[in-house]
Specification:
The structure is a homodimer.
Chain A (H helix, E strand, L loop, with lengths): L3 H7 L4 H9 L7 E2 L5 E2 L2 H15 L4 H12 L6 H35 L11 H8 L6 H5 L6
Helix pairs in contact in A: 1-2
The structure holds zinc ion (4 copies).
Chain A binds a DNA duplex through helix 2.
DNA sequence: GTTGACCTTGGAGTAGACTCTAAGGTTTAT
DNA sequence: ATAAACCTTAGAGTCTACTCCAAGGTCAAC
């Protein structure tokens, strides 16, 4: 039986975060003490641990809500229900990675084209690219770099 | 000389977005017509193109503000000023990719461990992992998968 | 002279995940 | 008895990048 501050400290989170999770239906303490304080049971703590582990693999609170709703009556649910949620997330994460890798590629080309020296930025290839290149076509830049002279 | 709707349409964006950029100091029309309409010059359009190209490589509006402030007085600035912004972003993007790849790895292990079949989720390895594994240590799961029988 | 397509403004709403504030009640120690 | 360290609530604020709304002004066409 833990009070909000204890449980929060144990898991390295803010007590406000626990109130926030409660307001959003993720985790409610199973009891209140006479003075109105929230009282969390060991089961509550386990549910919190579930939430935090799911967060640690990238799930949003909305997705965790879905996972929890499967978890609480898992006898009625099947493996594919669970795996679908994971595979769905896997796709979203992969798409986000792909987008960021496109960013990284373009940024690397921009960086490689610029001498990074201390001459005036008037002829900086990065600025020139952003001023006039076709979007997402910085490949011209990759070839011609200029020297800091 | 373009009105807000024209300029927006030319660039495939919403007129509201242009007003938003103006409010946040990214792009103000260089004139207003007698009736109070915004009037964008060709220079304004080029500045917008700069903003959109920067967005296309992943820069946030805050970062674009910084790039623009360098661009407008580039004669006073040097290549390293520009390259620093790009390299800074490159690092942030790489870090975000690394985080998402950790997510992807964990999610893949979770997915691989689950049969995805139609038997009760009571013994689903995904739920078991989220209930009891050490965070970010789903490697045990990778080995022992169960069959849908 | 009215319809329709444009434009203006200020302000509110959205999503996600908190984080903080104000105003007050409770418990424990000194 | 009073300070500190807890706890309560409702509600506001943060960040990002828009997007939408209401109420109204402008302009060209028919
Ligand atoms: Zn240079
Ligand atoms: Zn340069
Ligand atoms: Zn199974
Ligand atoms: Zn399973």
């Amino acid at each position: 039986m833990f009070r909000i501050g204890e449980l929060a400290k144990q898991h390295g989170i803010n007590a406000d975060t626990l109130r926030f999770y409660e307001k959003h239906g993720l985790l409610a303490p199973s009891a209140r003490s006479d003075n109105g304080y929230r009282v969390y049971s060991r089961d509550d703590a386990q549910r919190l641990a579930f939430i935090l582990r799911a967060k640690a693999v990238g799930f949003s609170l909305g997705e965790i809500t879905e996972l929890l709703s499967i978890e609480v009556n898992k006898s009625q649910r099947v493996c594919s229900d669970v795996k679908d949620v994971v595979d769905d997330k896997l796709m979203k994460v992969s798409e986000k990675i792909a987008e960021l890798e496109r960013f990284r590629f373009s940024l690397q080309l921009l960086s490689d084209g610029c001498c990074g020296g201390s001459h005036s930025a008037e002829h900086c290839t990065i600025l020139q690219a952003l001023e006039s290149c076709e979007p997402a076509d910085f490949s011209q830049l990759a070839a011609e770099t200029h020297a800091d002279s």
